[in-house]
Fold this protein.
Amino acid sequence: MGSMNGSKNDEYVRLLGAWPSPFVLRTRIALNLKRVAYEYLEEEDTLHSESVLNYNPVHKQIPILIHGNKPIRESLNIVMYVDETWLSGPPILPSDPFDRAVARFWDVYIDEHCFTSINGVAVAKDEDERKAAIAKLEQCMALLEETFQECSKGRGFFGGENIGFIDIGFGSMLGPLKVLEKFTGVKFINPENTPGLFNWEDRFYAHEAVKPVMPDIEKLIEFARLKFNTPIFK
């Protein structure tokens, strides 16, 4: 795990999570990128889990990274902590302060607009709600295509030559996007409108830090059917 005996890097690492969660996936990818050994603890009932209530009494949510006895909460916060704590593996956030600010901005945008639009499509009660949510999600994809072209500078990832902060933030949403594509028939990432993202998606899925922890799409589809009692999944 760590580079020096007796350092904070050598303390035992645990991750409380649930396999369908894109936010848990972010943490797992970051840990894999940094080659951190950790114990993964699946929490099937997070609302009533004693561990979750103990380590995150405020929000009662996963993921929770436990480093030694110290809990770190919220997925983007955890990814930044992992990047700053373990120097093994490639950097996740850029070293330049402006580039770091840009990366943080877009990951917040992904959570506040893209994820909420994904959820909006899933919970839509009628066709009008669904169309409005799909339009918002397509707008998110268009903006992220522009962002990819700007941030990648012709290289393979938002982070350049390797996966970075935006890659992790957006890549964790690919599973839910594919579930929506299955039920709506809309290809949110396609070679015509989002050619950069279209090629990036394959590279992201194939990355050694991602491939072992990416949820199976068919399992996600069945999970969505059970979770959402809305017309789209019937």
About this structure: The beta strands are 13-17, 39-42, 64-67, 70-73.
